[in-house]
Specification:
The longest helix has 16 residues, at 175-190. A 5-stranded antiparallel beta sheet has the order 3-4-5-2-6, with helices on one face. α8 (268-277) crosses α10 (301-315), α9 runs parallel beside α11 and α10 packs across α11 (319-333). Among the domains are: 32-135, D-Amino Acid Oxidase, Chain A, domain 2; 212-333, Helicase, Ruva Protein, domain 3 (Orthogonal Bundle), CATH 1.10.8. It has 11 helices and 8 strands. By secondary structure, it is an alpha+beta fold.
Length: 343
């Protein structure tokens, strides 16, 4: 149990589960669920992003079907195409197992109908992005109407529960402003002196550079270990002005500059840095989020196993825990076997 003067509930679609311990009056739903799904596919249009109009049959909670038109997009991304987004109302548990194979095929069919030259098949899909977004509780009918602004809920004002704040984000592009609002409210409630928020003007970590090309050339000139030019550029793009945080790993162990396994470009140094400095809890944090090892699809088995050994050594995992973490990675890429939601 953790206690604090102020608690911020920022659990995403689980905010209502966190609020479940409050009295009935304060437990009214704050996050009305809707689903969102994108696909990572082979690259279709390498230089242009396009908007398309697709038609879907979407299941209502009562099992009936409604035909819906949605604007879809196709955009180039890291040598692949991002295709989406399909939105639908949702009633059920908060889990990532709501996507089914028929749903994926339905999106492919809609894309191919809207843009026949794509000719995408299931074999062209490398990864399914899925998650939940908050709907506007005032929406009408079967269409999804998403919240457009982040929500900061002061439960002292709304429910008489002092010291509890709920934050509901809606977009990555507005997350900084939402965080500023939340922290300002925390400071006011704590009645403690604090300097004015600087994040509106302060570059994000690694972003303190004025001329990208000049900075890249400078790093290449000073790079401490032999490495392919493409890998150097990838690391500089990934870490920015913090890229030299990887250098001590290479100075201690030259092999840390090489990929953890064949089939991936991610180095042992990147895995170690993520484990030691980027607040990872599980192996899939490293594979799917802190590095690009599995961001566009399932990585090679040997790469996952090698990353697991690095993390196990740093965290003191035994063989059983290590195998559990590896299984967790693969389960994150699996789709549910369930009823069709789109057809």
């Amino acid at each position: 149990e953790v206690r604090g003067t102020v608690v911020v509930n920022a659990a995403g679609p689980e905010v209502d589960a966190v609020l479940g311990g409050l009295d009935a009056a304060a437990r009214r739903p704050r996050f009305e669920l809707s689903t969102a799904m994108n696909l990572v596919t082979r690259q279709v249009l390498p230089t242009h992003a396009v908007g398309l109009r697709g038609r879907f049959g979407v299941s209502r909670p009562d099992g009936s079907q409604v035909l819906r038109e949605q604007v879809l997009f196709m955009a180039p991304w890291r040598g692949y195409s991002l295709v989406g987004t399909v939105h639908a109302p949702y009633e059920g548990p908060v889990t990532d197992r709501w996507v089914t194979e028929p749903m994926v095929q339905a999106l492919l069919d809609a894309i191919n109908q809207a843009y026949p030259p794509a000719r995408l098949t299931r074999r062209d899909v490398y990864l399914v992005h899925r998650g939940f977004l908050p709907q506007d509780p005032a929406r009408r009918g079967d269409d999804v109407s998403l919240l457009r602004q982040g929500q900061v809920i002061d439960h002292a004002r709304d429910d008489g529960v002092e010291g509890l704040i709920t934050a509901i984000g809606v977009k990555f592009t507005t997350a900084r402003h939402l965080a500023e609002q939340v922290v300002d409210l925390v400071v006011r409630k704590g009645a403690r002196p604090a300097s004015a928020c600087r994040t509106r003007h302060e570059p994000i970590p690694g972003g303190h550079l004025a001329d990208w090309r000049a900075f890249l050339d400078e790093q290449r000139a000073d790079w401490p270990v032999p490495m392919p030019e493409a890998r150097i550029e990838r690391l500089v793009r990934t870490y920015g002005t913090n890229c030299r945080a990887l250098w001590p790993y290479w100075q201690m162990d030259a092999s840390a500059a090489r990929p953890v396994a064949s089939g991936t470009d991610i180095t042992r140094a990147e895995v170690r840095h993520a484990v030691e400095h980027e607040a990872v809890v599980h192996l899939d944090d490293v594979v799917r989020r802190r590095t690009a090892m599995g961001s566009a699809g399932p990585p090679p088995e040997k790469a996952v196993e090698a990353a697991a050994q690095v993390m196990a050594a740093a965290r003191g995992w035994d063989a059983r825990r290590t195998h559990q973490e590896i299984d967790r990675v693969w389960s994150a890429y699996a789709l549910a076997e369930g009823p069709e939601v789109l057809s």
